[in-house]
Design a protein that fits this description.
Blueprint (H helix, E strand, L loop, with lengths): L2 H6 L2 H17 L3 H5 L10 H18 L4 E2 L9 H4 L1 H15 L4 H4 L2 E8 L7 E8 H25 L12 H9 L6
Parallel strand pairs: 1-2
Antiparallel strand pairs: 2-3
Helix pairs in contact: 2-6, 2-8, 4-6, 4-8
Length: 183
């Protein structure tokens, strides 16, 4: 994809391109590599990273109709962490659902739950204004970030990973403009 292709895409289409990239990666990945714990703590496997991304898209699509998006109410389905075929199916479903978001729907005003830091009684959450389009841009950035982690994890395990996997559109554009060897 050329750098101009990234700029001209609607945010839903950009998300779809990255989810397709994820499905392509999963097509050649063994269950063992997918579910192996690489990092200590939560989401320490490639599967955990994919599940986390899928959860965020599910929240957006589930809550878009109510216009109150709560990313903390994630399903956290363990099957999506253990089974790359289940993750591929979930990504394909998300692609279909994202393709239904047109420009009018993307401009819809929504509220997003924002957690405020605090301790005990001082801790609270608030709803802040956004648009569906802005949340799609957030999800794009979130997905790129986690895909970059996935790429690093797989490389650490010795698996071949396309060098553009998990690379932000702006970085791909920069690489296209650059004549330097170092990226």
């Amino acid at each position: 994809m050329s750098r101009d292709d990234h700029r001209s895409l609607h945010p839903a289409e950009q998300n779809i391109r990255y989810l397709q990239q994820g499905r392509e990666l999963l097509a050649g990945l063994s269950t063992e590599l997918y579910s192996r714990c690489v990092l200590t703590g939560a989401s320490g496997s490639v599967g955990g990273q994919f599940r986390h991304c899928i959860d965020y898209y599910h929240c957006l699509l589930r809550d878009a109709a109510s216009a109150r998006i709560d990313y903390d109410r994630r399903e956290r389905n363990p099957a999506l962490e253990q089974d790359p075929a289940a993750a591929r199916e979930a990504l394909a479903d998300l692609e279909r659902r994202l393709a239904e978001i047109d420009g009018d729907l993307a401009r819809r005003v929504v509220e997003v739950k924002a957690d405020r830091f605090g301790v005990g009684a001082a801790a609270r959450s608030e709803w802040v204004g956004s648009t569906l389009e802005r949340e799609l841009l957030f999800l794009l950035s979130h997905t790129v970030h986690h895909f970059a982690l996935i790429g690093l994890m797989l490389r650490q395990l010795g698996a071949p990973v396309d060098p553009t996997f998990g690379v932000a559109p702006s970085t791909l554009e920069h690489w296209g403009d650059s004549t330097q060897c170092a990226r």
